[in-house]
Amino acid sequence: xxxxxxxxxxxxxxALSFLATLFDASFVPANAIDILINSIPTMIIxxxxxxxxxxxEIDISVGSLLGLLAAxxxxxxxxxxxxxxxxxxLAIAIVLTVGTLIGLGTGCLVVYGRVPSIIATLGLxxxxxxxxxxxxxxGDIKHFPQELRYLGTGTTIxxxxxxxxxxxxxxxxxxxxxxxxxxxxxxGSNPSAARLAGISVTxxxxxxxxxxxxxxxxxxxLWVAKLGNVSTSTGAGLELKVVTCVVVGGVSIxxxxxxxxxxxxxxxxxxxxxxVLNFMDLGSEAVKWQRAIEGVMILVAVTSDxxxxxxxxxxxx
Amino acid sequence: xxxxxxxxITIENISKSYGGVQALSKVCLNILPGEVHGLCGENGxxxxxxxxxxxxxxxxxxxxxxxxxxxxxxxxxxxxxxAGIAVIHQESTAFLDLxxxxxxxxxxxxxxxxxxxxxxxERQALAVMHRLDVTLDLHTPLREFSIAQRQMVEMAxxxxxxxxxxxxxxxxxxxxxRETKTLLGLVKQLRESGVSVLYVSHxxxxxxxxxxxxxxxxxxxxxxxxxxxxLDRNQLIGQMVGREINALxxxxxxxxxxxxxxxxxxxxxxRGSFSDISFEVRAGEILGIGGLVGAGRSEVARAIFxxxxxxQGEIKIDGASLKKGSIQAAIEAGIAMVPEDRQHQxxxxxxxxxxxxxxxxxxxxxxxxxxxxxHETAQVQHLMRRLAVKAANAKMxxxxxxxxxxxxxxxGKWLAIKxxxxxxxxxxxxxxxxxxxxxxxxIRELTEAGMATLIMxxxxxxxxxxxxxxxxxxxGRIAGQLDGATATEEQVMRLAFPRSEAQLT
Amino acid sequence: MKKFAYEFFLLGLIxxxxxxxxxxxxxxxxxxxxxxxSSEIWELGLLTLGMTLIxxxxxxxxxxxxxxxxxxxxxxxxxxxxxxxxxxxxACLATGLAAGALNGSLVAFIKVHPLLxxxxxxxxYRGFAEGLQSATTNAPVDASEGIKALVTGNFPLIxxxxxxxxxxxxxxxxxxxxxxxxxxxxxxxxxxxFSGIPIAKLKFWIYTYTGLLAGLAAISxxxxxxxxxxxxxxxxxxxxxxxxxGGTSIxxxxxxxxxxxxxVLLIHETRQFVDWYWxxxxxxxxxxxxxxxxxxxxxxxxxxxxxxxx
Amino acid sequence: MNKWFSxxxxxxxxxxxxxxxxxxxDRGDGTPENSNDDKITIALLPKLKGIAYFTxxxxxAQQAADELDNVELxxxxxxxxxxxxxxxxxxxxxxxxxxVIAVAxxxxxxxxxxxxxxxxxxxxxxxxxxxxxxxxxSFFVNxxxxxxxxxxxxxxxxxxxxxxxxxxxxxxxxxxxTAANQNEWMKHMKTRLASxxxxxxxxxxxxxxxxxxxxxxxxxxIKKYPNLKGIFGISSVSFPGAAEAVKQAGKTGExxxxxxxxxxxxxxxxxxGEVKTVVLWNTQDLGYLTVYAAAAIRSGELKxxxxxxxxxxxxxxxxxxxxxxxxxxxxxxxxxxxxxDF
Lengths: 317, 505, 310, 342
Description:
The complex is a heterotetramer of chains A (317), B (505), C (310) and D (342).
Chain A: H1 4-23, H2 27-38, H3 40-54, H4 62-77, H5 88-111, H6 117-136, H7 146-153, H8 159-177, H9 179-189, H10 191-196, H11 201-227, H12 238-248, H13 260-279, H14 283-286, H15 290-309
Helix pairs in contact in A: 1-13, 2-13, 3-8, 3-11, 3-12, 3-13, 4-5, 4-6, 4-11, 5-6, 5-11, 7-11, 8-9, 9-11, 12-13
Chain B: E1 9-18, E2 21-31, E3 36-40, H1 47-55, E4 62-67, E5 70-71, H2 77-82, E6 85-88, H3 100-105, E7 111-112, E8 115-116, H4 118-132, H5 147-160, E9 165-169, H6 177-192, E10 196-200, H7 204-210, E11 213-218, E12 221-227, H8 233-241, E13 261-270, E14 274-282, E15 286-291, H9 297-305, E16 312-317, E17 320-321, H10 327-332, E18 335-338, H11 342-346, H12 353-357, E19 366-367, E20 370-371, H13 373-387, H14 403-415, E21 421-425, H15 433-448, E22 452-456, H16 460-466, E23 469-474, E24 477-483, H17 489-496, H18 499-504
Parallel strand pairs in B: 3-10, 3-11, 6-9, 9-10, 15-22, 15-23, 18-21, 21-22
Antiparallel strand pairs in B: 1-2, 1-4, 4-5, 7-8, 11-12, 13-14, 13-16, 16-17, 19-20, 23-24
Helix pairs in contact in B: 4-5, 13-14, 14-15
Chain C: H1 5-24, H2 31-37, H3 41-56, H4 64-80, H5 85-108, H6 114-135, H7 144-147, H8 157-175, H9 177-187, H10 189-194, H11 199-224, H12 235-245, H13 257-278, H14 281-303
Helix pairs in contact in C: 1-13, 3-8, 3-11, 3-12, 3-13, 4-5, 4-6, 4-11, 5-6, 5-11, 8-9, 12-13, 12-14, 13-14
């Protein structure tokens, strides 16, 4: 069963939708688009982190990076104090560049510095969070130019959703239709063999880290465009959500395996849990347990595979 | 076969050292077009390093390599490929998560307008599989293939390119006799079509059958390059080790064998792996299990040792039945196992020789719940002497030992528990001739002292010389039993092949 | 001595930090200040003991901070219900034990990757802590009665306990069969299994032990502050950072308690001094993050004996 | 054995370093605390750094410090609303020997111990913005009690929705479920809501510090409760989140959002109409008053039992018991919001 994981995720998404429909008959039509839109930052970054995990590395700095980039964008483009009010397109270009460069820097630490990626990105997670707070200084930044907000709130055409679909489709094509994608899988599957096959492991890893940086920048831009507000807490905790989505989506934490479809479904699933719980009449007491319920559901999602596969013989690791 | 005097590849004065150890020193060698050139030598003699230099994986410190008179730039995989050199490396270069087509084309995908051209790749894959006469599903991840099938994929990968020199580093190490035969046939076919082959193997039979010339390495130096027809087996071994080795002789009588049943296995069954496995091993007896790779031998060994679970059946050691799926219980009952994969299952490479050797006897060397270093050292020294492990000292990392010495350490760590029943799964794979002989001697000695031994091996001469009795497995079942003293290779092979195929051959 | 080169390197780094401190503000180094500030080190120290064992087996536990929060809340609930102090403490430790055992059994018996297990329980334990607290007392519980004695006095119980546990863990790791087994698992789990080392048992045990330590840390924290779901928030990052700075390889197989202690000390002194002198919370984060990366880089380039592992 | 000697050696060396450092500074010590008797060092601790509310408080505080030339102001706080981090900072300031610590308490219980110790060390402890336990501080600079804030928000909402007979569903979006201040406010909000029988509290949400979650919760509430008329966004994350959700749902004017915020911060939404009224006080004045009070208490000008106190440009301020009153709650609307700049 090649698409076993995807199938079970679809079943789960269906089950949750059905559950919510019991409480509100029009749940699906009323919320489908909004759930997708709300999942955008997670979705876009998950595409990058998925590739990183497929190469056998991990990036847990994306939450802080998103925060830092959002703060940078805000400072550059906001029309009120303390923003510089430079043209939004220029600001976007700068943020994309900065994001890519930081991603590349992370890659260099991992590839040339040979710092284990989980440690390098843990250090960055802490340090970039501090840098974000440092940049933000005074308080929330609002007052963004209309060109920028339009990316997130253009009512008739959800530009951000279209962009996200492009990113997801691009990642899918990259994975399955290009030589580079093949090499990403090969590097994660067997690094030494990849080297012998003439693949540059170094370049491949640098590429996925830089790409993740750039995707994080795109997510940061869309985040600002959507919410119109940047604070010191922007992006906090996003990295864990992203990693959760990627692994629930069936990407092997050991590298080499995983498909974009599973990740997309997992992002939708994890984003919709909140909305479904909001639509169920949990009552004022139960709502306090919302985070615990989410936690249990994620634990179940992460471990369920192992429970079902346990009895199969000869499971080689 | 046309022999032009002009060599395809000329290697001159290649030297390479790793951290002070001279792996290759001033090696000169040439390979003629259309010849199969054998490369022999004990482990650590420098064969693999030479291959890596040729393949562009490592760059030699001095010397030149020329292909058709044109110098090859060092350490450049792509230049090597462009020059028409293909390598099948010793360590597995399979990408287990990728499917067959993806594996074949990794690193040199066929593209059309920048996108992968899947159809063209599938077409070429089918063509090459046809040429190799193997049928494998193109879209199954390699994880689901057997070791031998993976080896075939590697062959196919090398054949895919129009290479002029194919380097094969112990390609048959994990292949069964039948698969080896297919492979040798294929090499001959390549030779016919004018491809040169550099063939590395420990199996002298293959060298003799296949090669035109043989080059022997010892301690990083080239000893001699000799046409095969001017060399006999013992001379070859002599060149390799620098001294004479007593060739293996078949066990003449069942010395020390008793009627006391050590291990009895009845009706062992594991879904999808093996069924109906029943046999007994007596104290002082060596039971050999032959069969093709993938016949289920390793799986049986693992099940007995408790490494895998099984669905039905019973294992008794000295009459007491053994708990299922627990290695600790097996060890307590006196079972020891030298596993198939030395690097991953047998040894902990980054740990010292001493720590590896004492891993199985931790409770024994513990006093007041603390490890007693005096006891540990004493035990380790004793084992190292007994097995003649060649290591500078016991604190050396196991990774720094040669393959043969590593295998001795694995054996040693099990001898430490004084096992009643020893299971050996491919005990001499990738082990040089001298170490192999020592390991064989040791197995016999121990068995004669009253141990029961079960040996699984793809190496037919080893199976025939060591075993008192031979059972042959085929497709997860025991196909038949032979007497060790009289069995022949043909008898074993006949039992090893599935019925339908046996008729064909 | 060569074996402990990295530990001396850490010691040197600590000296550098302290020298800078002495130069900028000698008051920071006075024994009064150091003793006072050290009250924050015990929880970090306790958790790193368990984390070192876990990381040596190539595992990880992201949930320690959350487990600590859950333990603190359960302590608070018991105190709120006016149960005897002994019962409260036991309940707190039992919660930690249970949280650790859940992690341990999923990792050891169900064989889920520890990163995934603890990533999930990280959110789950904190969620339960917040849920429990807001559904019952809806505020932190003052735990000063009864357990305060644990953290006060000339030789507070928590310090004695920490010292004892450190010694015990160090001996366990360096001198016993169990310790050998843990290193073996970290280097090569398959080979360790084939050598008859009870992998599942050991793994289960270390995660459970870490849970128990989280319970202890929760008691220490609650006695100092109050019993609250906030206990141990983002502490896991410091714990992992301290262990890794201490020279334990995230890939498993390498690490010592001595290094971990120095790692704890280095992180502690750095953090406290940056906080103390510059008074910018965000700067502290930048410094700690950078320190982590630099320490690992330093280890790689100055002490790497095994440049090609992974 | 070698290992053991080395480990012990390490520790001895370590202790020596710390010990030497200790001795050294003991010798040269005794100065920092009381050296500058004429200078009063005031440490101002907000609930958290980096939000507009506390930044504007800090600006006011700095004005006061500049006016009073004998005051040195330290402003630092945790980056999330963590009482634990606050306690750590209080401990450090005590050791550094500041003169006054002014705290906006995230949690009275958690801070209690640290504040007591600070007082024992002879440091003047006052609270501002959010009170600690009464025995842990001398004065509380009271801009509004939790009760006043809670009922203020409810009254504002009811007023905007049509006075005492206001009818419809309302919802609260808080921070985390354990956020002490928000829980305290909610308690009073619920009490106050009882006096508006037609206002029906349908849901309370806890999105934490996650902007996206706050937005998502508001969006879901708007859809789930068609009769929703008002949302209380009672944290610095949930207030703009809710306003933005109302705006994007096209419900501007139909659903009102209210909460606590500085006028500058929520100005776009007040102008836009999603927020009719923002409840707050003059935050700059709060910081200003706190510093003035701190200096006066430290220098002995202001003692327990006083009923009045002059604070620079603010003039006379009333004192009731141990609480220094800032004055009334301000309501910012479209009409007056441009007059304020903080």
